[in-house]
Amino acid sequence: MSHTPYENTDAPTADVSDGAETDAPVDDTLALPRWRRDTAIFLSGQTVSLFGSMLVQYAVMWHLTIETKSGAVLALSTLFGFLPQAVVSIFGGVWADRVNRKALVIAADGTIAVTTLALALLMLGGADDLWLIYTALAIRSTGAGIQTPAVAALLPQIVPTSKLLRVNGINQSIQSAMMLLAPAVAAAVYASTSIVSVFFVDVVTAVIGIGLLLLVPVPTLAHAAAGERAGYFDDLVEGFRYLGSHPFVRWVLGLYAVVFLLIVAPSYLTPLMVARTFGEEVWKLTVNEVAFSVGMLLGGVLLATWGGLKNRIAMIVGSTFVFGVLSVAMGLSTNMWVFFVFMFLLGLSVPPFSTTSMTVLQETVEPERQGRVFGFVGIVMAVSMPLGMVVFGPLADRFTVESLLVVSGVLMFLVITVAVVLPSGRRAIRAAAQHG
């Protein structure tokens, strides 16, 4: 695989003397002649599997809400659903660099499916203890911590570097579409039958996803196949050292972490603002969520068809600035429909940031280290939502959501200003301009 000029030539590199992983022809699609077929099958399998997982996510939340009506129970379910993924992601990233990533994804998906099937059978038998659901959520979260970095690192093995942004854009669109479709399907299945039926649907979708992935050839990295590996914890330490010695990757991850944290405010507190300011009617809350999700869907489609700017850093920096503008604009909105337009634009702006930053990492990080790097990304994604709610949730009970949105936007301006004046940020921008 070829790499962009953002990479740090001083960082340690693994032995890839056969050149298979780093040297690509000018037309890098020639090295992967079946990439369209393999990518289509892979994304189809992941979409089916993701759909089942999202059904379970919504159904469990509704089931616990209806059966217990307890905020403490919902808080614990969130803890069990996110914390294991955050802890395991870094270890899952190391595994993704040591073994065949396809096998790792299948093993994680299979474990999640077996766990869900066991929970379904226990509940059919009359068991309804909360600890069973918590245990299943924790195992599913652990599986996600293993699976997520492996999937992110696997994709560049089957997709030419020049096509990564478009493929990631397609994947972003698919995930956004699932955000629109899954709640409706989960509600229909849960309301007409029971939560056990939702669990069985998830098992079937996991089996389909695994079956499709089996059709995609994914080679084991050459050094891993040869068994020329350091100890597990040596690999883990080397991953931290790599992150510390690679200013550009550290810059991207740092910006990603801060922006992901700050975007929690408009993403998760806007329903509260709508209810307080514009009214508690359900249709208003629904329009708020749909506007954001449709924006994300169209943003992914636009990125997949357009291909984005050649200067990836300009897209990341520009979309971060747009986040700040829209957050302030939403905080100052006094008209409900204008507010919904801003929510739509916020969703539209997410793929140019999240998809582009993910693509930059895939293009920059050496294949044998991608699992560990995306393990760090997994930690950011798993921790930022609950951490953001811990910070902004209590503040929303003392201050208006509008004021928090304005503060979030101002902080976004400050973050991007600091990011572009850092030496690593300036080098990244210059390198991207030369590359474009």
Radius of gyration: 22 Å
Helix content: over 70%
Number of helices: 16
**Assembly state here?**
single chain
> How would the global form be characterised?
globular
Tell me what the structure shows.
- The structure is a single chain.
- With 436 residues, this protein is mainly alpha-helical.
- It has two domains: 31-215, MFS general substrate transporter like domains (Growth Hormone, Chain: A); 229-436, MFS general substrate transporter like domains (Growth Hormone, Chain: A).
- The protein has 16 helices and no strands.
Q: Concise description?
A:
Helices cover 80% and strands 0% of the residues.
List the helices and strands and how they pair.
Blueprint: H1 35-68, H2 71-98, H3 101-124, H4 130-158, H5 164-192, H6 195-213, H7 222-225, H8 232-245, H9 247-262, H10 264-278, H11 282-306, H12 312-332, H13 336-364, H14 370-398, H15 401-421, H16 423-435
